[in-house]
Amino acid sequence: ERSGDGYFNEGNLQQAFLQYDKSLRLAPENLRLSYKIGLLFLLNKMYGDAIQQFQEVIKKEPQNALAYEGMGLALFQQQKTADAERYFAKAVELNQTLWKSYNCLGIICDKKKDYKGAIASYEKAIALKPDNQLLYNNLGLSYLLSGNYSSAINAFDKAMGFRSVPNKVYNNMGLALGLAG
To answer: Can you state the percent helix, strand and coil of the chain, rounding each to 5?
Structure first.
C-alpha cells in the first residue's frame, strides 16, 4: 500500500493501481485500499468502476465520508446531479472538512438557481481551503448570477490575487464590472 501511495503521489496512477490491487488481494477486507482503487478509477474517468468501489466501501463502512464524496464526484461527472447532491450532503454531514463536496454542492445549487445556497456552500469551502482560486471564482459567479455585482467583483478580485490567473477569471471580472456599470 505504501508503494502504491508513493506511485500515486508521483502521478504514476497505473503503478499505484497495480500496488493497491496486489495489496487488496492480500487483505481483501481493507476498505482503505478499496477506497483508493475507487479514487484511481475516478481519476481515470472510469466512473462506473469508481461507483462500484465506493458502494462497496459504503456498504461495509456506512460512516466513511470520503467514500460518499467519491460517489458524489463520480455521479457528478456522469451528470447525475440529484444523486450526486445526496452523496455530497451525506459526506459533509459525516465530515464538515470536505471542501470538494461543498464546492460541488455550490455548483449544483447554481444549476438550480439557488444562489443563496451556492454562496453558503462556496463560503464553507473557502473557509476550509482559502488558497483555492477556483472557489473564489465560483463564489463570484454565484454573486454575479444573483445580481450582487459588488460582491462578485470582490470575489473575482480575490481570485485574481493568486500567482497564475486563468483567463476565465479575467472574463468573469470584466463581465461583473460591465454589469456594475
So the answer is: 80, 0, 20
